[in-house]
Amino acid sequence: MSRFSYLFSTKNWLIAGACFLMTLEAFRTLVDNVHVVINRTDSLPIKAFVHLRRQVPHKGDYTLVSSCWHGQRLVKRVIAEAGETISYDKEGTLYVGTQEVGKPKHLSKTGQILTPIKEQVIPEGHVFLYAPHQDSFDSRYEELGLIHKKALQGRAVPVI
């Protein structure tokens, strides 16, 4: 028996072919559903994320959302879900639940008018997105507002 006799076995070729096709399918699935996203803004201290497109984000997770106002996708953290309260204190500080979010601004860094979000209870199917930077464009402003869960583009897992 030769060292290469396995090459002449139809069964071995079928097994190798099946393994090759499964590897290609796994690679295709990975390429279609997992991406690296770089955050080029100062809104988050984290600069790189692995974007898991098909995973549903929950409170505490990072996610991506498209912004017509900015013309790009934004990486933000889900800090509140349906049923939680958005309120202001006497000094104008915004609270989401018991978390202090800061005082919303009325102008962006580029001079665009910003409309602070109104006091309300977050409706069913919506979330509040946030980033800790004082100039972050997030759900503090009506221009982005509360985001419907269907508009969330998967989970973003911090890398660095």
First-last Cα distance: 54 Å
CATH architecture heading: Ribbon
| Coarse morphology | elongated
CATH class: Mainly Beta
For the sheet with most strands, the description reads: 7 strands, antiparallel
How does this model look, in words?
- With 160 residues, the protein is α+β, with helices and mostly antiparallel strands.
- The chain has one domain (34-158): Ribbon (Umud Fragment, subunit A), CATH 2.10.109.10.
- 15% of the residues lie in helices and 31% in strands.
- The protein is built from 1 helix and 11 strands.
- The strands form 2 sheets. The chain has a 7-stranded antiparallel beta sheet. A 4-stranded antiparallel beta sheet has the order 7-6-5-8, with no helix packed on it.
- The radius of gyration is 23 Å and the shape is elongated.
- The relative contact order is 0.21.
Helices and strands in order, then pairings?
Elements: H1 10-33, E1 34-38, E2 48-52, E3 62-67, E4 72-81, E5 85-88, E6 94-96, E7 99-102, E8 120-121, E9 126-130, E10 147-148, E11 155-158
Antiparallel strand pairs: 1-2, 2-11, 3-4, 3-11, 4-9, 5-6, 5-8, 6-7, 9-10
Short account of what is shown:
The protein has 160 residues and is α+β, with helices and mostly antiparallel strands. The protein is built from 1 helix and 11 strands; from the N terminus they run H-E-E-E-E-E-E-E-E-E-E-E.
